[in-house]
Design brief:
homodimer; alpha+beta; Alpha-Beta Plaits; 19 strands; about 20% strand
């Protein structure tokens, strides 16, 4: 049925369209050879049906972005913006074909300003490249999604990316002061400001942040920077089970300490990592673990805060604790967390990786219910993630595509539990294609209708990143036409 | 001309409308006696022409808010929501009459949750009442606008209120996880979530935050809380002039310390306060002052950070410094800042108080240009505010209303300088009526048009808080009709 809809929605590009694109961006940057199209047919979303664009366009300037957008707007050609393709929800996949607009050539760090602690960047800058440039100036840009070595800042803003440090420092949206963008109708707008404060007009910056490329194409981003914290301390604590670990998390925060990171691994995650011989040897009876990291501008203060955290873990029944005393031990601790992705692949060939969020205090129930759902649907699961935020990366593992219907059934149950516990279906990956089905459950009909009206305020013709997120306007028309034709 | 437009836009309430309102909220809560109308004809904006509503309605529940909104939507009656009336831009003034909807009876703190560090509150809760309740649970809610003893949380969200602690902790918007609201069309929506993370759908929460009551009526707010910082240290440093003070601010932040507060007073502000005999006696040669406050979870760390700040001030030529060693001395330091408002009233009978923002490094230029503009327009000025954010509360002082044209001329120049320096016209007060004229200068035509479309997505009939912020739809019609009739 999805396949049918996709075919129905596909349109042939207008005559000479690719040559018109080439006259804007140059022959080398409007590409329609099969190999390039294939490379742009998917992102990092597991089990996603690839979808070929008609042409991949790589503009080299804002003017070119605008010119391309105007060409597409004039002829009603779909445009799907794309950064590095590191997304995990299919947000940059051109489900109905058309143009995939890759922003990788807009990759200049225009300004890093120490006095005002702001940066101006183009959307194609790689996050890690940016962080290194910022750190070289003695400053700090906290967002740290797992794909930081290759994801782009434009994609980070489009998806409002998070990461472990979000507990203390917030997600990408907390650092976006303003953007420049090209609207689907071809106008260029400038939102927000260069200063951290400002309330002039509606907050369009926040509306674009996390809009997954459905409202506008980002061409420039102003980011807030922080003073670099001068000291970081890391520890790992092991618990007999999930419940005391989560209670310890709440107790630490209630006790007045705000670690920059509170990463959680459940029993199944620890078992998976154990097979990989991690540098830190988990004790045999480990039923849950926390990685705790504090930072600050005082060495004594940072260590004192971490020691208070470890004391709380002991009071809550931690059975082992390990405080890193040097950089190597810190890396060893993080290695156990970083091995997880590879570790789950050793258990089963395939997986889906969700990023559900529940109120922190409901993590034990969520983890227990996830294990129960695994049993019910005869699938392996494990849960790990950002305990301080209640953001769990729930993994469902399987070997063969014929298990997918059971995986889908498990996910239907899982999202039901998430919403019943007061949570949200996605903490940092986004809705895209893979959670589109569940969005109405979270938002409700009136809110969906409002969001549809917001989309229309930016994109009345519905040509920007169609098929994502919300019930698609053109898809609705097509479905209606289908129904009428029958 | 404004007066004419207001008269043109006023409509007589439909027959029996007030009695229909009374049947919804009870006779005592739909009030149209002159004294009540007069009390709701203005807010704290200086020099604002009062505007009488036709009726003041104080609903006692969300159901009543919705019922009132539906009555108004049905008959096209204007609705202007209002909290405590502490706003400084005229945002809650019913310029075209109609209903003023006061949310003061929705004043329950529904939940303060220690484990998840969130609170659920109704919009009419007084900020200080809330902060005290949160602190009693060992937690912390940072936003601290000057009106904290009487402003409401609903108003804080509607205006995205700030305060001195915003430097480290951000403004109100950083704490709003989600809201419940009634749309101008009568539907109830729920935005956001109970968790700190979440990216399901467009960020309508942020769009409502700072929308100044023009998009929806807030009926419930979910706020993020923080662990209470356990230690606070306060100091005051005096400089010979503005420039070294501001350079010291940049140097502190670049040096890796993030104080929670960095308040600035210029020479004219110090002179004004000196007359009031403040507990801290400013030296005769004081040309600028900074109040610096650090906080954290370690006593040693907090003190160390403040001492590093003071060292930086010394390196930048501070001529005096005073580190508070107890609560009384801390109060003494803050008294000099708090006396400012009264102090300026001693100099001249009247004032306008702006809240411009410029990039931090441009403060010296902004302060100097403000003094020059005062000379040019023969008016007294002074500048103080939140130096860390670049947010200056520029005061223009005068004695008599016949000086107002010169005040307006000065402000026209002032906002021109602000925008030329890369700043914004309002950091925390909002646009409302008093900065409506300047908003197009900051946003530009395409952005204004987009914001108008966003307004329409919420309020197609244009009945919620008309006349504010954006060129008004109905006002535009009226103006067109006027032009056509001529």
């Amino acid at each position: 049925m999805r396949q049918l809809l996709r075919q129905r929605m596909r349109k042939t590009l207008p005559r000479d369209f690719v040559s018109r694109l080439r006259s804007v961006v140059g022959d080398a940057y409007a590409i329609d050879d099969e190999e390039t199209l294939l490379r742009h047919a998917r992102d990092e979303t597991p089990n996603l049906t690839p979808s070929l664009p008609d042409v991949v366009v790589r503009p080299g300037s804002v003017d070119e972005v605008q010119a391309v957008m105007r060409l597409c707007a004039k002829d009603g050609v779909y445009v799907t913006p794309r950064g590095a393709g590191s997304g995990k929800a299919g947000g940059c996949v051109a489900v109905y074909g058309g143009v995939v607009l890759v922003l990788d050539r807009l990759n200049r760090i225009r300004v890093i300003d120490r006095d005002d602690q702001v940066a101006h960047v183009e959307p194609g800058v790689i996050l890690q490249t940016f962080q290194e440039a910022v750190e070289a100036e003695g400053m700090f840009y906290p967002p740290d999604p797992a794909s930081l070595s290759w994801c782009t800042l434009g994609g980070n803003v489009a998806c409002n990316a998070g990461g472990p440090r979000a507990l203390k420092y917030g997600v990408t949206g907390h650092y976006v002061l303003g953007v420049e963008a090209v609207l689907p109708t071809g106008e260029r707008i400038k939102t927000g400001r260069q200063t951290t404060k400002g309330v002039a007009g509606y907050d369009v910056t926040s509306l674009l942040t996390g809009s997954e490329g459905t409202l506008a194409i980002l061409t420039d981003i102003t980011l807030k920077l922080l003073p670099a914290p001068r000291f970081v301390q890391t520890a790992l604590a092991v618990f007999p089970s999930t419940e005391p670990a989560v209670k310890a998390v709440s107790a630490m925060l209630a006790g007045g300490v705000l670690p920059r990171t509170l990463e959680f691994m459940d029993k199944d995650s620890i078992e998976a990592v154990r097979v990989m011989n991690p540098p830190y040897r988990f004790p045999a009876y480990a039923g849950a673990a926390l990685i705790i990291e504090t930072d600050g501008d005082s060495e004594a203060g940072t260590l004192e805060a971490l020691e208070r955290c470890l004391q709380v873990t002991t009071e809550h029944g931690a059975v082992d604790a390990f405080l890193a005393t040097d950089a190597r031990q810190r890396r060893d601790i993080w290695a156990s967390r970083r091995l997880l992705s590879e570790a789950t692949r050793k258990i089963k060939k395939k997986k889906v990786s969700e990023d559900i969020v529940v109120p922190r205090s409901r993590i034990p129930e969520m983890v227990a219910r996830t294990t129960q759902l695994g049993d019910k649907h005869r699938l392996s699961t494990c849960s790990f993630g950002h305990a301080g935020d209640g953001n769990l990366h729930t993994q469902v593992l399987f070997d063969d595509d014929d298990e997918l219907p059971r995986v889908e059934a498990l996910l239907d149950d899982l999202f039901g539990v998430v919403l019943a516990l007061g949570g949200t279906i996605t903490g940092e990956h986004g809705v895209g294609l893979s959670k589109k089905k569940y969005l109405p459950l979270e938002l409700g009909a009136d809110m969906l209708a409002l969001q549809r009206r917001l989309k229309d305020a930016f994109d009345p013709a519905g040509i920007l990143n169609p098929g994502k997120f919300l019930p698609d306007k053109l898809a609705l028309h097509a479905a209606k036409a289908d129904a009428a034709g029958r």
